[in-house]
Write a structure and sequence with these properties.
Number of strands: 4
Mean pLDDT: 81
Distance between the termini: 48 Å
Structural class: alpha+beta
Strand content: 15-25%
C-alpha cells in the first residue's frame, strides 16, 4: 500500500494518535515507518521533538514559531529507502474556509 493511500484511509486515527500523544508529551512528530512495506506492515509511533533527528527538529521548530502552524500536526513518512517526507497536517477546520468558499471569484473586466 502506498503511503498516500495509507494516510487517506487512516487519517482520523492518525490525527487522534497525534493529538492524544501531544497532550501527554511535548510537541513531536508522528512517525509512519514504511520500511516493512513488503510485509504489509506500517509502524506508527509518536516521537517527541527532542528525540527526532536534527534536520527534522530544525524544520519543525522553525515552523511552530510561525502562528500559522499553531494547529498543525507533523507526520514523518519513513520510506523504504530511509528518506523522510515531512507532512504538515492542518488540524484547524476554520482555516479551510478560504479554499472551500462557495462564492464565485469575480473577474475584473
Amino acid at each position: 500500500m502506498s503511503h498516500t493511500k495509507f494516510i487517506e484511509n487512516n487519517i482520523d486515527n492518525l490525527v487522534q494518535i497525534y493529538i492524544n500523544e501531544s497532550k501527554v508529551k511535548q510537541r513531536g512528530v508522528l512517525l509512519l515507518d514504511f520500511r516493512k512495506q513488503e510485509e504489509k506492515k506500517v509502524d506508527v509511533s509518536y516521537v517527541e521533538l527532542d528525540k527526532v533527528p536534527k534536520d527534522i527538529y530544525d524544520i519543525v521548530v522553525n515552523k511552530i514559531k510561525n502562528p500559522l502552524y499553531s494547529s498543525v500536526a507533523f507526520f514523518c513518512i519513513v520510506k523504504p529507502d530511509n528518506h523522510c517526507i515531512l507532512l504538515d497536517i492542518n488540524l484547524d477546520s476554520s482555516r479551510d474556509g478560504y479554499f472551500n468558499s462557495k462564492k464565485p471569484i469575480e473577474e475584473n473586466n
